[in-house]
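Exercise 7. Given the encoded structure of a 138-residue chain, write a plausible sequence.
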Protein backbone atom coordinates (compact mmCIF):
# COMPACT_ATOMS: atom_id res chain seq x y z
CA UNK A 1 0.00 0.00 0.00
CA UNK A 2 1.32 3.41 -0.97
CA UNK A 3 0.42 6.53 0.96
CA UNK A 4 0.55 9.95 -0.64
CA UNK A 5 -0.33 13.47 0.40
CA UNK A 6 -1.41 16.05 -2.12
CA UNK A 7 -1.05 19.45 -0.54
CA UNK A 8 -1.74 22.94 -1.77
CA UNK A 9 1.43 25.01 -1.52
CA UNK A 10 4.94 24.18 -0.44
CA UNK A 11 6.06 23.57 3.10
CA UNK A 12 7.74 26.68 4.50
CA UNK A 13 9.42 27.71 7.73
CA UNK A 14 8.79 27.03 10.55
CA UNK A 15 7.14 23.80 9.31
CA UNK A 16 10.01 22.42 7.20
CA UNK A 17 11.94 20.76 10.03
CA UNK A 18 9.02 18.91 11.69
CA UNK A 19 7.65 17.94 8.26
CA UNK A 20 11.00 16.41 7.26
CA UNK A 21 11.38 14.79 10.70
CA UNK A 22 8.07 12.92 10.57
CA UNK A 23 8.46 11.98 6.90
CA UNK A 24 11.82 10.41 7.75
CA UNK A 25 10.45 8.55 10.78
CA UNK A 26 7.36 7.44 8.92
CA UNK A 27 9.42 6.28 5.93
CA UNK A 28 10.85 3.44 8.00
CA UNK A 29 7.36 1.96 8.46
CA UNK A 30 5.14 3.44 5.78
CA UNK A 31 6.78 5.50 3.04
CA UNK A 32 4.82 8.60 2.12
CA UNK A 33 5.02 10.59 -1.09
CA UNK A 34 4.22 14.28 -0.80
CA UNK A 35 2.99 16.09 -3.90
CA UNK A 36 2.75 19.87 -3.67
CA UNK A 37 0.40 21.60 -6.11
CA UNK A 38 0.02 25.29 -6.80
CA UNK A 39 -3.74 25.45 -6.18
CA UNK A 40 -6.78 23.29 -5.45
CA UNK A 41 -7.73 22.99 -9.12
CA UNK A 42 -4.51 21.03 -9.81
CA UNK A 43 -5.43 18.25 -7.37
CA UNK A 44 -7.68 16.15 -9.62
CA UNK A 45 -4.95 15.56 -12.20
CA UNK A 46 -2.56 14.29 -9.51
CA UNK A 47 -4.87 11.71 -7.89
CA UNK A 48 -3.45 8.17 -8.05
CA UNK A 49 -5.65 5.70 -9.91
CA UNK A 50 -7.87 3.50 -7.74
CA UNK A 51 -6.57 5.08 -4.52
CA UNK A 52 -8.75 5.57 -1.47
CA UNK A 53 -8.92 9.38 -1.47
CA UNK A 54 -9.25 11.09 1.90
CA UNK A 55 -9.82 14.81 2.40
CA UNK A 56 -8.74 16.56 5.56
CA UNK A 57 -11.89 18.50 6.29
CA UNK A 58 -13.17 20.09 9.48
CA UNK A 59 -16.54 18.38 8.90
CA UNK A 60 -14.93 14.95 8.62
CA UNK A 61 -14.73 12.15 11.15
CA UNK A 62 -12.29 12.79 13.99
CA UNK A 63 -10.07 9.89 15.03
CA UNK A 64 -8.14 9.20 18.20
CA UNK A 65 -4.57 7.94 17.83
CA UNK A 66 -5.79 4.37 18.24
CA UNK A 67 -8.56 5.19 15.80
CA UNK A 68 -5.91 6.23 13.26
CA UNK A 69 -4.11 2.92 13.85
CA UNK A 70 -7.32 0.96 13.27
CA UNK A 71 -8.09 3.07 10.20
CA UNK A 72 -4.61 2.46 8.76
CA UNK A 73 -4.89 -1.28 9.42
CA UNK A 74 -8.22 -1.37 7.55
CA UNK A 75 -6.62 0.39 4.59
CA UNK A 76 -3.78 -2.14 4.60
CA UNK A 77 -6.31 -4.97 4.53
CA UNK A 78 -8.13 -3.28 1.64
CA UNK A 79 -4.75 -3.22 -0.18
CA UNK A 80 -5.62 0.06 -1.90
CA UNK A 81 -3.28 2.98 -2.05
CA UNK A 82 -4.29 5.95 0.11
CA UNK A 83 -4.13 9.58 -0.94
CA UNK A 84 -4.73 12.41 1.53
CA UNK A 85 -5.76 15.84 0.31
CA UNK A 86 -4.85 18.97 2.25
CA UNK A 87 -6.27 22.22 0.95
CA UNK A 88 -4.85 25.69 1.22
CA UNK A 89 -5.96 28.47 3.52
CA UNK A 90 -9.56 28.23 2.29
CA UNK A 91 -9.74 24.45 2.51
CA UNK A 92 -10.86 22.25 -0.37
CA UNK A 93 -13.53 23.43 -2.81
CA UNK A 94 -16.76 21.43 -3.26
CA UNK A 95 -15.70 20.12 -6.68
CA UNK A 96 -12.63 18.50 -5.09
CA UNK A 97 -14.57 17.21 -2.08
CA UNK A 98 -16.93 15.50 -4.52
CA UNK A 99 -14.00 13.30 -5.64
CA UNK A 100 -13.13 11.88 -2.22
CA UNK A 101 -14.05 8.55 -0.67
CA UNK A 102 -13.85 9.81 2.89
CA UNK A 103 -13.37 12.94 4.97
CA UNK A 104 -11.41 13.00 8.21
CA UNK A 105 -10.76 15.78 10.68
CA UNK A 106 -7.74 16.45 12.84
CA UNK A 107 -10.05 17.97 15.43
CA UNK A 108 -12.58 20.75 15.89
CA UNK A 109 -10.04 23.56 15.80
CA UNK A 110 -8.91 25.37 12.67
CA UNK A 111 -5.19 25.23 11.91
CA UNK A 112 -2.80 26.38 9.22
CA UNK A 113 -2.69 23.91 6.34
CA UNK A 114 1.07 23.47 6.78
CA UNK A 115 0.54 22.60 10.43
CA UNK A 116 -2.23 20.16 9.46
CA UNK A 117 0.28 18.43 7.20
CA UNK A 118 2.74 17.98 10.11
CA UNK A 119 -0.04 16.78 12.45
CA UNK A 120 -1.22 14.24 9.85
CA UNK A 121 2.31 12.92 9.33
CA UNK A 122 2.79 12.60 13.10
CA UNK A 123 -0.51 10.76 13.55
CA UNK A 124 0.32 8.37 10.70
CA UNK A 125 3.71 7.72 12.30
CA UNK A 126 2.07 7.16 15.68
CA UNK A 127 -0.42 4.76 14.04
CA UNK A 128 2.39 2.71 12.49
CA UNK A 129 4.12 2.45 15.86
CA UNK A 130 0.88 1.34 17.54
CA UNK A 131 0.34 -1.31 14.86
CA UNK A 132 3.93 -2.53 15.19
CA UNK A 133 3.57 -2.74 18.98
CA UNK A 134 6.57 -0.47 19.36
CA UNK A 135 6.97 2.16 22.07
CA UNK A 136 5.97 5.70 21.20
CA UNK A 137 2.31 5.91 22.06
CA UNK A 138 1.33 6.04 25.74
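Solution.
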Amino acid sequence: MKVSLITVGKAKQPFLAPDAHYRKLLGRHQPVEVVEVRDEMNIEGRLPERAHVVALDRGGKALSSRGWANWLQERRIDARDVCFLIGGRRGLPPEVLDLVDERVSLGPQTMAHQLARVVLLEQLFRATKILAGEPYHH
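Remark. The chain has one domain: 3-132. Students should compare their own answers with the one above.
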